[in-house]
Structures are given as C-alpha cells and as structure tokens.
Design brief:
Length: 433
C-alpha cells in the first residue's frame, strides 16, 4: 500500500516518549497489541499519560501495575473494569467531563494528546480506513496528535460517516487480524422486563431513540418491537437496536438530522452485529462532539433519552458515576442526552433502575451516599422508572417528588423513606397523604 509504514507493535511504540499524552481508542476494539508492547517498555519511560474512555478489552489494562505507576499515569475519561480497581487503589485517576465536550478539550490542547493509538479497518479502494466501532473520542484524538499509531485490523468492520483516516496519514501501522470483543446479552430478568415495559408505555411511534447498554435497555427495545417509524441517534449501538433495524422498526424516516440513517458513535455487541454494520450504508458513525451535541440532538423530534443510575435521592438527584467515593464510571453521555432530549419537540428523558440492589439495598435513598457524584441534577430529572412503576418529576415540588419516588421504591424501603421525607419536608409532605 502506498506510503504505509508497516512494522511490529514493539517498533511502533518506540515513537512514544516520556512525558507524552497517549490516547487509546475504546469500545470493544481496544488496540491491545499496542498496549501490551507499550507496557513492556515501562522501565524505559516516565510520566506517560494514558487517556481512554469507554472500553471493554479482554482483561486488565497491561500498564495498570503498581510497579509501573510512575511510568504510566492513568487519567481515565470514563472508568471501566480494565482500570477500576487500579484507580480505586489510588494508582490512577479520572478526569470529570461530559463526554461530548472531551473532543474540545483535545482540540484546544487543554488535554494534550501527543500520540493517538487506534484499531482501524482495512483501507477501502481510495485508501481510507474506518475507525470502525469506536469513532467517539478517536476522531478528535487523531486530529490533535502529532503521531498516529494504528492496528490495521482485518476484523474491524468498515463503517461509514466522518470517522476516517487515509492509510498514508498513519505514522506507524501494525497489521493484525484480531476480532473485537464479542458481547452477548442474555434475556432480560423479570425486573428488567417490568422496567422496560414501564418505559415503553411512554414511547410514541416516530420517536428518535438514545439508549444505553445492558439488560434494561434490551428490555426496553424488546418492548417496543411493534412500534413504527423509530429513529436512532445514539452514543452506543448494541444488538438490540440492530434487531429493530433488521425488522424495519427503526427506519429513521421521521428524523431531521441525517434522515434515513442510524447514527451512533460507538458499538459493542455480538459478531453478528459487527458483520451487520460492516459496509452498511444505512448506518453512520461520527465524532462524539457531533452525536452528543445537545443542539444537534434537539433537532430530531420526540427524542427518547434512556439512561441508568446507581442511586437517586428523594429530590431527584441522580448518581450514576460512583458508589460513594469509589469512582465506578463517569458521566458519559447522560447529561448530553438528558439536556438535548429535554429540548427536543415532544422529547422525553428517562432514568431507569431496579428499585433495589441484588443485596436488597434500596436504590431510592433519603440522601445520596456521602461521596456520591450528582450526574443528573434534580433540575433535569423527568421520568424515573423502576419495576414498580414510572413517575414524572419535572412539574413537582420537593415533597411531591419524594412521594412519587417512594411509590416506585422497593416495598421494604418505603416506610423508612416516608419517615425521612416527613423529617425533611414536614407538613408539606404529610399533607399529601
């Protein structure tokens, strides 16, 4: 191939110097060959800052070792399982930022990226490689970096959209054939199915969906399989939305922004999903600065933004990034879509969660656990759904919110929540009964 600089992973990482900021692409296509080779250079390097966001590799990140903590400085933009315990132990950290604003932080050099490492498709007939299933932050990282290192990977699907790089613009290319991580989601549980049905009851035909990953989103998608003319403008694509695309439920005929096409920024799912996306002209992947821009999100009608939470207090404050002081993830795109969805004509925003943890602890609480972060404020909360029902908070005062949330809490927690609400809100709460 013209001007391609193919080499081994060990040769490629020699372009990384002490003090560099290095971005690694994410989703289920983390460039693990390059990560392993870089970790092997740990004793030669110092203060290499590692940036990554939502990523699902096959194991713990290879540079997350205590003996390497001065060689590689973990500065996560969305904490996932590959770095979570390492960060919790104080060996790395997280930069709080709305996902949709991180590209600006890269481009403005507020977060300086010297080297961008991606896992891209084979080039098309014009020499352009697709970023595959992780456009999200990779587009801005590549634009901002002085050096681009790529796994040119036979198994990465070629997706249309704006996330492309010409093979000649790659400074170091490593040929490989490593499939992205395949994720299979089982059938929803009874609790997830009940939550999905509660949310589906509020979704009209012609809606534009933003929906997350996991059992509850899958249950929602199962519950809307008889809807008509749905659109998709989302951050993450999964097998659930692919099923609706294959069945014609998602046809994007009512969308205003890029009508006729499903729009996303990253994907994670089964091998079938990756094959479905490969050279599929009905799908486009874009920079997360585009997909998560509230002013673009609002252009679509009836945006249904469906997100999750770890706990909610009686006033509607929503924690989704931490368990007490322990960082579990980050804000991701929740705020971007909660805001953009609220601005959309006919739009609705949802927070979905089981009423209790697997150990029986209520997820609706009098006050958030000390140290917990507020990802969605009480001022933004609209619909809250558990398996016990769905309530609308936007037009309610604090006492009314407390009563509504108690009605969908786990039955075993309601008496304690009522006592806490009466203590906090007094007569304005008790008069509601």
């Amino acid at each position: 191939m013209e001007s391609v600089k193919f080499m081994t992973a060990q040769e490629a990482v020699k372009l990384i110097k002490s003090g560099d900021g290095v971005y690694f692409q994410g989703s289920t296509a983390v460039p693990e060959l390059i990560q392993e080779a870089l970790a092997q250079r740990g004793t030669e390097l110092k203060d290499v800052k590692i940036y990554s966001a939502f990523c699902i590799p096959r194991g713990v990140a290879p540079f997350c070792k205590e003996e390497l903590r001065d060689s590689f400085i973990i500065r996560s933009l969305f904490v996932c399982a590959d770095q979570r315990e390492y960060i919790a132990a104080g060996n790395g950290n997280m930069i709080p930022a709305f996902l949709g604003e991180i590209p600006f932080l890269f481009r403005s050099r507020q977060i300086p990226v010297n080297v961008a490492v991606i896992n891209c498709s084979l080039p098309d007939e014009n020499g352009y490689c697709s970023y595959g299933i992780s456009a999200d932050l990779a587009v801005a990282a590549v634009e901002s970096a002085e050096v681009v290192i790529a796994q040119v990977n036979k198994s990465i699907p070629y997706l249309y959209g704006s996330a492309m790089i010409h093979i000649s613009d790659i400074d170091a290319a490593v040929e490989c054939d490593i499939p992205p991580v395949a994720m299979e989601f089982g059938e929803p549980t009874d609790i997830e199915r009940a939550i999905g049905n509660n949310i589906a009851s509020e979704i009209p035909d012609g809606a534009t969906l933003q929906i997350g990953v996991g059992g509850i989103p899958n249950a929602v998608l199962n519950a809307i399989k008889h809807h008509k003319h749905l659109g998709l403008h989302t951050e993450a694509m999964t097998d659930g939305v692919v099923r609706l695309m294959e069945e014609g439920v998602i046809d994007n005929s009512m969308k205003k922004y890029i009508p006729g096409k499903s729009v996303g920024s990253l994907a994670l799912g089964s091998k079938h999903m990756y094959e479905f996306l490969h050279y599929n002209k009905d799908v486009e992947f874009h920079d997360v600065a585009v997909t998560n821009d509230p002013q673009i999100i609002r252009m679509n009608p009836k945006v249904m933004a469906i997100n999750s939470a770890l706990e909610i207090d009686l006033t509607g404050q929503i924690c989704a990034d931490s368990i007490g002081e322990k960082i579990f993830s980050s804000v991701g795109g929740q705020h971007d879509f909660m805001y953009g969805g609220a601005l959309s004509e006919g739009g609705k925003t949802f927070i979905a969660l089981p009423s209790a943890t697997a150990k029986g602890k209520s997820k609706i609480v009098p006050t958030l656990t000390p140290g917990a972060g507020v990802v969605t404020t009480r001022f933004q909360a609209q619909y809250i759904a558990t398996e016990n029902g769905i309530v609308y908070l936007r037009n309610k005062d604090l006492a009314e919110r407390a009563k509504a949330l108690i009605s969908i809490a786990h039955p075993s927690a309601r008496e304690e929540l009522e006592r806490a609400a009466f203590k906090r809100f007094g007569h304005s709460f008790s008069r509601l009964y």
